[in-house]
Specification:
With 149 residues, this protein is an all-alpha fold. Helix content is 52%, strand content 0%.
């Protein structure tokens, strides 16, 4: 960079390195009276994310979902926190653990709002009932009406 008289953005683009690495290398080169040799961009060893869920946690989750098949990740996480004090885990990490290590197939649940499509639902029901009447269904003999509050 110094010898060629290139600007920092040009060096970054030509050598495909980050600007911070270029600045750090230039600073080390300047402070060492031009004796620093090039080195790798990072000296840190990536150790990965530390494991948070162990065998006993996994077994607890398997038993929990066997007993509560309609549970959510939030409820399962609360039970984990209750039974294993001091455990901290994000919902995304719990989801990843269950889907990648235990091959769970999890669906995102959403609340159903009854007022969301009332007119549409009534029209669809009306069409279905009219088709049944055309076929000859007798609602007094063949149907059971369940009233849900």
């Amino acid at each position: 960079m110094q010898e060629g008289g290139m600007a920092m953005p040009t060096v970054v683009k030509q050598h495909m390195i980050s600007r911070s690495n270029a600045c750090r290398s230039f600073k080390e080169f300047s402070l060492s009276n031009s004796t620093v040799l090039p080195r790798s961009a990072s000296n840190k060893i990536n150790k990965g994310t530390p494991q948070k869920l162990f065998t006993e946690h996994s077994q607890f989750l398997m038993d929990y979902f066997d007993k509560h098949p309609s549970s959510t990740l939030g409820l399962a996480r609360e039970e984990l926190f209750f039974h294993f004090e001091g455990l901290v885990i994000l919902l995304t990490a719990l989801w990843k653990h269950l889907t990648e290590h235990h091959f769970f197939s999890l669906k995102q649940a959403s609340k159903y709002n009854l007022d969301r499509d009332v007119e549409r639902t009534i029209l669809l029901c009306h069409e279905i009932v009219n088709k049944w009447i055309e076929v000859g269904v007798d609602f007094q003999k063949n149907c059971v009406v369940i009233k849900i509050k």
